[in-house]
Each structure stands twice: as structure tokens, then as C-alpha cells.
């Protein structure tokens, strides 16, 4: 049984067929889904979906690209609902797109790390062009670990995350031949550091073109990493699910 450690099942793209998507994914061998919120407005929907579909686990947090519209009261709401989540996420830093307020991103990231520390929860990290900045925040505010989602840093940065108790998430990006660095990492990092994800409905893997991504494609993503590592899909499945269960303390 596979675990999709990052899947936005709450996205509007799934409103018309969410139940079918979950059952097709389950039929394909995906048994657990981690559903991270991106903004306070979405907390209720994420919790409702995870309550409705067995095997779905909620994470609550404010995504760096949504910090622009966030207010301090959102952190209070997060504080009041964090006990219902398996992780704080999706949180992090995104310095890729120009024009976003980096100071505000940092301040929301830091307060959410402190909240994760207070609740003893792992975190789900979104990191773009900000690997070292995220690492320095994590050294300042020690959390119990978590997942660096859609990891796209260097080997050395990967090793720093691992030292801090993190797993690294690999998904659609790894299916593109040109993604040589990500494919190298997916093929060579210690197996106990790796978890799988789709990031559905975003990050479509190469084999579906530009179509809506879905957790039902996770088995094919698992085949890609099995080929890169020259081991069986079964070994990948057992190890990556064990890693996800361990780091997020899933039942
Ligand atoms: Zn995401």
C-alpha cells in the first residue's frame, strides 16, 4: 500500500469527482493520503474531507504563497485547530516568485514552526529558492521533523534536512528526463529518507502531459523511482509508506 504524502484533495479541481478520485487511487494501491491546507479559509474543508474519506489525514498551515493575504488572527485559528491535524503544513518559504513580501513570509513561517514545536507536530515544508533560509529557521526553532515536499535542493542540502529529522518528498518532477539532479537524489539518497507524493492537482508527471494530476498516478511514480534505484516497486512501497507512517505518526 502506497502513501501519497502531499495531495491537495480539497482543491476545487476535485469538487466534481473527489469520491471517485479517492476510490480509483485506492483501487490502484494508494491507501493513505496526507491533505495539507494552504490558507485559513481552507482548514474546515480539509478537515471535513479527511473526516469523510478513510485513509485521509489533515495537515493545517498557511502556505508561503498565501501569506500575502494572511492576518495574525489566522495563526490563532491554527492554534485552536492544530490538535486535529497530523502535521503543520503546508508552510515554508518561496523566494522564486518576485514581488512577494519575504519578511512577512519569514514571520509566518517562524510563528508556525513555534506552533509545531508547541504541539509537538511534524511540519510539511514548501521550499523554492530558499533551501538555506529554511534550514537556518529550522536550526533556530527545532521541530520534531517532517517532510521537505517536492524536494529540489542539492545533495548537501538534502543531507542537512536529513540530519534535522526530515524526509524528502519526491513526485512528478522526478518523472521528467531533464530533471537530472532530482532523479539523481531520488536514486541515491538513503531509502529511509524518502517519501512519495503527487502534489495533485499540480505537478503532473511526464506520463500524463498537462492533465490534472491525481493520487491515482502515485503507483506509476513509484515505478519510476524503483527503476532509478534498481529495486522492486514492492520494496519502494514498503519503505516509503513505513517512512511516512513513522514521520507523521499515522495509524
Ligand atoms: Zn502543496
Describe the structure.
There is one protein chain. The protein is of the alpha/beta class. Helix content is 41%, strand content 16%. Strands 1-2-3-4-5-6-7-8 form an eight-stranded parallel β-sheet. Helix 5 links the parallel strand 5 and strand 6 (146-148). The longest helix is centred in the middle third of the chain and has 18 residues, at 102-119. The two termini are 13 Å apart. The protein binds zinc ion. Zinc ion binds at residues 6, 8, 36, 90, 199.
Number of H/I helices: 9
The largest pleated sheet is described as:
8 strands, parallel
* Strand content range: 15-25%
Broad structural category: alpha/beta
If classified by CATH, what would the architecture be?
Answer: Alpha-Beta Barrel
Number of domains: 1
Shape: globular
Poorly predicted spans: none
User: In percent, how helical is the residue content?
Assistant: 40-55%
Rounded to an integer in angstroms, the radius of gyration calculated over CA atoms is 17 Å
Count the beta strands. Answer: 8
CATH topology: TIM Barrel
Q: What compounds are bound to the protein?
A: zinc ion
Largest sheet, order of strands side by side? 1-2-3-4-5-6-7-8
- Mean pLDDT, all residues: 97
Amino acid at each position: 500500500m502506497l502513501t501519497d504524502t502531499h495531495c491537495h484533495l480539497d482543491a476545487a479541481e476535485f469538487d466534481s469527482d473527489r469520491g471517485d478520485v479517492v476510490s480509483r487511487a485506492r483501487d490502484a494501491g494508494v491507501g493513505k493520503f496526507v491533505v495539507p491546507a494552504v490558507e485559513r479559509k481552507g482548514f474546515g474543508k480539509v478537515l471535513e474531507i479527511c473526516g469523510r474519506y478513510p485513509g485521509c489525514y489533515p495537515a493545517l498551515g498557511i502556505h508561503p504563497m498565501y501569506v500575502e493575504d494572511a492576518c495574525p488572527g489566522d495563526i490563532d485559528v491554527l492554534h485552536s485547530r492544530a490538535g486535529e491535524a497530523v502535521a503543520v503544513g503546508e508552510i515554508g518559504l518561496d523566494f522564486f516568485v518576485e514581488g512577494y513580501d519575504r519578511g512577512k513570509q519569514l514571520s509566518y513561517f517562524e510563528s508556525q514552526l513555534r506552533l509545531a514545536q508547541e504541539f509537538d507536530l511534524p511540519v510539511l515544508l514548501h521550499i523554492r529558492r530558499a533551501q538555506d533560509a529554511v534550514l537556518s529557521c529550522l536550526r533556530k526553532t527545532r521541530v520534531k521533523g517532517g517532510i521537505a515536499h517536492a524536494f529540489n535542493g542539492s545533495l548537501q542540502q538534502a543531507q542537512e534536512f536529513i540530519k534535522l529529522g526530515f524526509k524528502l518528498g519526491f513526485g512528478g518532477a522526478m518523472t521528467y528526463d531533464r530533471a537530472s539532479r532530482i532523479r539523481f537524489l531520488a536514486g541515491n539518497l538513503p531509502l529511509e529518507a524518502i517519501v512519495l507524493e503527487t502534489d495533485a492537482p499540480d505537478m503532473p508527471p511526464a506520463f500524463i502531459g498537462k492533465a490534472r494530476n491525481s493520487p491515482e498516478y502515485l503507483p506509476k511514480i513509484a515505478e519510476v523511482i524503483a527503476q532509478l534505484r534498481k529495486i522492486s516497486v514492492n520494496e519502494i512501497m514498503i519503505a516509503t509508506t513505513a517512512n511516512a507512517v513513522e514521520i507523521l505518526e499515522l495509524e
